[in-house]
């Protein structure tokens, strides 16, 4: 195909569409030439990428792209909103993503894990003096990351993304991103699209990325009296039990002037408010006198999507399914996947000077991501199946969390996102303790069931006696 024909395919001039206006981008970064892999001229501008979604994944991708010489558009629907989220991030993220310390609401150095029988374990005994879990509000973190991306040269568009026109995969035609600005329909032609628009990703649907299970997270933000808030100054709590969730955990995480109290489930989403009442009942004494200032709910992916790259479209963050089971962690993996995807595009395009394709995205982004993190997701998936299936297993989990070696290995992996170097002898001991805890927990579980059954019988007999009287 001649260069002039390729140029017409990627033309950015206004096209006539019914009630649709195309964004004029002809004055932006026209100095360099994109070439295809055969060296033929494609168009007299830099590679153009649209990032859909302005959370940690989208903002990190956009900033990386723009800093690498790629013309970047970040489309975000709500610049002031935030998804319901515990807001915990690992220590390494602060340095890796240059997060200012003044964004941190609380530095959690103590964590309590409470079992179904109210066995409480202090989880944090092995933290070193400089170590902590940073607690932030998502609206604060997301706003900062978007602003930094914009300062790097990203064009931020406050608009509702509606749909994506996908060209034939084998063609070099542009993707057309459609969005709505205050009731006005607009669109822009781009070379590459990054979907960072959450668990219900419209970008993922546009490329038939496949379905996956989603959990529902529900939380209330509760403003506590000063004396109650003092208790949660540097403390977070996790609750497990069938009353809290059949397959997840409940939490109380401290923020600047309030606590976030919530839970989640994938198997019984219709009962989420019932489980939230279970959390509230467990923490009733600690939050009594508090005032609910916000109620939030949001879907959370349970595993990576079947397809995360298709054509010149890549998925990152929740859109790709990068939330770990067992812990429910997603913020770090969202930002990391966004940055890795951005780096992949910058590298494959020669800093925005040549076209890329699906093979580039799979090689430079997907293959590297899976090599680095996919086993972490599989391992935590296994842990959830072992320990979150019933109350007996949850008792075993809490018992194990009291072990100093378990705590050190857990925090080493979580805080620094690296495989903790263990001690072979301690690893064997941990395995033996795990088996022992599971055995004891099943015995305890049977005894608790007997007690519950006996309690029902006693209540029934008392009811009969009372009726006779």
UniProtKB/TrEMBL annotation:
Pfam families membership: FAD_binding_3, GGR_cat
Q: What class of enzyme is it?
A: oxidoreductase
Q: Which GO terms describe its molecular function?
A: FAD binding; geranylgeranyl diphosphate reductase activity; geranylgeranyl reductase activity
Metabolic or biological pathway, per its Swiss-Prot or TrEMBL entry: Cofactor biosynthesis; tocopherol biosynthesis; Porphyrin-containing compound metabolism; chlorophyll biosynthesis
InterPro entries, from UniProt?
BchP_ChlP_pln/prok, FAD-bd, FAD/NAD-bd_sf, Geranylgeranyl_Rdtase_fam, Geranylgeranyl_Rdtase_pln/cyn, Geranylgeranyl_reductase, GGR_cat
- Domain called FAD-binding: residue spans: 47-208
Query: Could you tell me where the Polar residues compositional bias lies?
Result: 1-10
Catalytic activity, as annotated: phytyl diphosphate + 3 NADP(+) = geranylgeranyl diphosphate + 3 NADPH + 3 H(+)
Per the record, the GO terms for biological process are: chlorophyll biosynthetic process; photosynthesis
GO CC terms, sorted: chloroplast thylakoid membrane
Q: Which UniProt keywords apply?
A: Chlorophyll biosynthesis, NADP, Oxidoreductase, Photosynthesis
Q: Which residues form the Digeranylgeranylglycerophospholipid reductase catalytic domain?
A: 229-286
Q: What is its EC number?
A: 1.3.1.83
Query: Which residue ranges are recorded for the region named Disordered?
Result: 1-29
Task: Family membership, please give it.
Answer: Belongs to the geranylgeranyl reductase family. ChlP subfamily.
What is the protein's given name? Geranylgeranyl diphosphate reductase, chloroplastic
């Amino acid at each position: 195909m001649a260069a002039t024909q390729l140029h017409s395919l990627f033309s950015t001039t206004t096209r006539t569409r019914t009630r649709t206006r195309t964004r004029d981008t002809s004055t932006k970064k026209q100095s360099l030439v994109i070439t295809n892999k055969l060296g033929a001229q494609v168009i007299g501008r830099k590679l153009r990428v649209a990032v859909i979604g302005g959370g940690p994944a989208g903002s990190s991708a956009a900033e990386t792209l723009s800093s690498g010489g790629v013309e970047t558009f970040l489309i975000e629907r709500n610049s002031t909103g935030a998804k319901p989220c515990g807001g915990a991030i690992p220590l390494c993220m602060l340095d890796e993503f240059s997060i200012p310390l003044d964004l941190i609401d609380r530095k959690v150095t103590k964590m309590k894990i409470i079992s179904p029988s109210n066995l409480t374990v202090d989880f944090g005994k092995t933290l070193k003096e400089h170590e902590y879990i940073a607690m932030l509000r998502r609206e604060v973190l997301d706003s900062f990351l978007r602003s930094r991306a914009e300062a790097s040269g990203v064009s931020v568009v406050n608009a509702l993304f509606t749909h994506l026109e996908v060209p034939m995969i084998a063609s070099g035609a542009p993707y057309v991103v459609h969005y709505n600005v205050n009731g006005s329909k607009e669109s822009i032609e781009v070379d590459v699209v990054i979907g960072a628009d959450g668990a219900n990703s419209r970008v993922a649907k546009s490329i038939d990325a496949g379905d996956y299970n989603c959990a529902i997270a529900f939380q209330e933000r509760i403003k506590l009296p000063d004396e109650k808030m003092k208790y949660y100054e540097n403390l977070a709590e996790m609750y497990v039990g069938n009353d809290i969730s059949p397959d997840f955990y409940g939490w109380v995480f401290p923020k600047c002037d309030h606590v976030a109290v919530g839970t989640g489930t994938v198997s019984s989403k219709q009962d989420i408010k019932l489980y939230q009442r279970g959390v509230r009942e467990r923490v009733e004494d600690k939050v009594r006198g508090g005032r609910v200032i916000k109620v939030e709910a949001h879907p959370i992916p349970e595993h990576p999507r079947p397809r995360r790259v298709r054509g010149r479209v890549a998925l990152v963050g929740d859109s790709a399914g990068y939330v770990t089971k067992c812990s429910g962690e997603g913020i770090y993996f969202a930002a990391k996947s966004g940055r890795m995807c951005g780096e992949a595009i910058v590298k494959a395009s020669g800093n925005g000077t040549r076209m890329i394709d699906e093979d580039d995205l799979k090689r430079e982004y997907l293959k590297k991501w899976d090599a680095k993190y996919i086993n972490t997701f599989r391992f935590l998936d296994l842990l959830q199946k072992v320990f979150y299936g019933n109350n007996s297993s949850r008792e075993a989990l809490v018992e194990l969390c009291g072990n100093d070696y378990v705590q050190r290995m857990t925090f080493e992996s979580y805080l620094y996102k690296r495989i903790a170097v263990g001690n072979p002898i301690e690893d064997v001991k941990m395995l033996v303790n795990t088996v022992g805890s599971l055995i004891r927990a099943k015995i305890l579980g049977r005894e608790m069931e007997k007690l519950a059954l006996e309690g029902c019988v006693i209540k029934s007999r008392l009811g009969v006696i009372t009726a006779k009287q």
